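ingest -> validate -> predict -> emit
validate: passed (alphabet ok, no gaps, 172 aa)
predict: started
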Amino acid sequence: MVLVPEAKDQSKAAKGRRRGPARPPRAAPALAWSLDDTYTPMEDYERSIQDMVRQLRNSSEPGDTKCQVNLQLWRSNQRSLSPWAYSINHDATRIPADIPEARCLCTGCINPFTMQEDRTMASIPIYSRLPVRRLLCQGTGKVGRKPSGRKKCHKKYQTVMETIAVGCTCIF
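emit:
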């Protein structure tokens, strides 16, 4: 290996560089999920949603309606300063037909010092966009509608993103 002294007329940008071996270039991180980038197959995703709905339906705990924090429970939705409960969002023209959706239990937020609701703050839902398959009838181009006339609707599904409340948070 031969060391060559650097020229004195280097640009300012070159002078600030680190010396030593160059780092390999890194790939840019993925910033957004697209429908083409399937992390898991759609069937696995739909099955996990169905499992969540089944757990919600088979839950032995009473329906959550009180604005209170329960530190004994392991579920984060009841330990939050903005607690929420899940209800089932049902739509027969989509797959999965049932999706758990969050509903805020408090208008305000739980004050961590008094453990009482403080209405100077507000609990608001957190929304996420989830991929679902919508029933699309051929011949109309309209989602979930049967074509006019005597033709039968041939079931065809289109993947779309749907906005669902997934939790609640506290704002001032």
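The chain has three helices and seven strands.
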